[in-house]
Amino acid sequence: MLDFDPASNPHLAEVQTDSRRAYQGSFLQIEKDTVRLPDGQQVSREYIKHPGAVVILPLFEDGSVLLERQFRYPLNRVFLEFPAGKIDAGEDPLLCAKRELREETGYIATDWRYLCTIHNAIAYSDEHLDIFLAQGLTAGEAQLDQGEFLETFKAPLSQVLEWVKLGKITDVKTIIGCFWLEKILKERW
Question: Catalysed reaction per UniProt (predicted)?
Fold first, then answer.
């Protein structure tokens, strides 16, 4: 049995001995910690603190999915991705998923299922993403946040998987979501 608790794995655990905030932004903060390694050495660890987010896999009855095209500034390009959004302080992740789907796409769903939590940048961030399957979709009008620009479109999952294979989709949450959907539709998971 695998045990992920640091107390059960002292030969691997790093222990914080000091911490300071290196940067405080409106959305993210950067921490700079001093840690003691298992061999006793002290080193610095810098990491991004993130409030967490949700990812929604909108699945239509015909097996197609709803995707977004959105420009992402850090990489200066448009990405194809599943709807997603930041969890507000104290917000329930499922309520966040419902809110984000409605705001970004206009769709509402009658059937929701939590699938998993992923950690997409474990070397430099504490960010986690809770992934939800949304079915029983009904179209409505999007209510984008100020400064948010995106387009939505429907595509067969087989096409989306081909885009993953060809490297046209590189967003990790979308790739993982596609693999989950592939297993779900084949009734393997």
Answer: GDP-alpha-D-mannose + H2O = alpha-D-mannose 1-phosphate + GMP + 2 H(+)
